[in-house]
Amino acid sequence: MDKNNMKIRLDFNNMLEEYLGDKGISLKQIDGLKNKIEKANKEMVTKREAGKMDFRNLPNNQDDVVKEIKQYVNDVKDKFEAFVVLGIGGSALGPMAVHQAINHPYYNEVSREKRGGFPKFYVADNVDPEKLTYLFETIDITKTLFNVVSKSGQTSETMSQFMIVKKMLEEKMGKDAKNNIVCTTDKENGNLVSICEEEGYKKFIIPSGVGGRFSELTPVGLLPACMTGVDIEELLKGASFMDEICKNENIFENPAYMYGILNYIAMEEGKNISVMMPYADSLKYISDWYGQLWAESLGKSVNNNGDKVNTGQTPVRALGATDQHSQVQLYMEGPDDKVIVFLGVDKYKEKLVIPKSYENVPSLSFLGGESQNKLIKVEQMATEYALMESGKLNMTLTLPEVNEFTIGQVLYMFEVATAYAGELLEINAFDQPGVEAGKNATYAMFGRDGYEKKKKEIENRPVKKEKYII
Ligand code: PA5
User: Fold this and answer.
1) Is residue 448 helix, strand or coil?
2) pLDDT tens profile 273-321
3) Of 65, 124, 231, 468, which residue has the fewest beta carbons closer than 10 angstroms?
4) Cβ proximity of 5 and 400 under 8 Å
5) How far is the centre of ligand 1, averaged over its atoms, from the C-alpha of 215 (Å)?
């Protein structure tokens, strides 16, 4: 495979004044950020060298991890009918996105042979008593490998699932239950790592300096991917290829930096919504994954100096062509508050020809003999064009094909773009005090030790008035 033929391409023409008139971003505006850009470029290098952006090493420092994962998968895959990820947020969205992108869309329904001999795949990423109960009705837990994924090793949603599963397995399998559990967690922080050691579960480690939403290229994502037949080496090679591109200081040759800059300018102008609209079902979950990455990293109340800034863009997930028949109306004619990012594909894995028929019905005959491949491409171009015509900022990221190498590039490019946007905004893109606040409030309301003050505070919250509940 010629890597350069598989390079993903960011087309930002429709973000620019040249195409959108005064609604667009001018090259002069970009030039005006010269000092800021130079500072951000420098920070990206300095922080990487100082070990403050460990996600950037992942494409190139995991040979041993990959070897261990492949060996483990090889040893256990035939013993299980299903593989279930128990995780949430950054511990679930990446595995779902990669699975959907690479594997058969009806993966669990097709034969094991067609799945390449790999087990069925499920992700339980919520505390929904109904869904989890129905999952247990769907799988035979004694023939299921549960992958408990938690960086902090204490997230209530994941740990409650683990506790339920563990008890069920022990009731059915006694001491052998431990063979049906594999954990992915931090090497020392949290409860999960010590539980693994005490109870003898196989474990994989998430590097300490890599946070949840940046962890797809660690065992968080690599183990589930490998367990469903994804070529994880190619995934990392794609990321590594993009890493070289992202080292380029010239922003006009660095898609991650350009993506960060254009969105930064857009945010400054009040475009506070980031729509991601793939034109391929296989990429639908990439928008979910991106939504978390972009929102949780950039949604911050204060900057690095402690000044109130309330930054961020609200991610919106859409799907082409489906959402042309719903949300696009709003994108075209609603408030001018969005940047729309299309994900396009040059070559779909399949070709589907529309048969010639209804030759006397002009509204249908034009489709005959054409392909669905052409139809979806034309619809994508038509939507881009219509948005450009109405002065709406949009960009397109095109994947030559959807495969491990291109998905590795996509994941890595958006991760670098997020970190870079964080530098431009002068915020900490790697913490999540808002998410922690929710976690802490839950611990407090359950009466967990150490959260007494929070509990009191919540108990003293303003009482809701019945008259406002109708
Ligand atoms: O990005 C993040 O840090 C979060 O979204 C976490 O991934 C999420 O809260 C789950 O945390 P953990 O992996 O510690 O269970």
Assistant:
1) coil
2) 999 999 999 999 999 999 999 999 999 999 999 999 999 999 999 999 9
3) 468
4) yes
5) 10
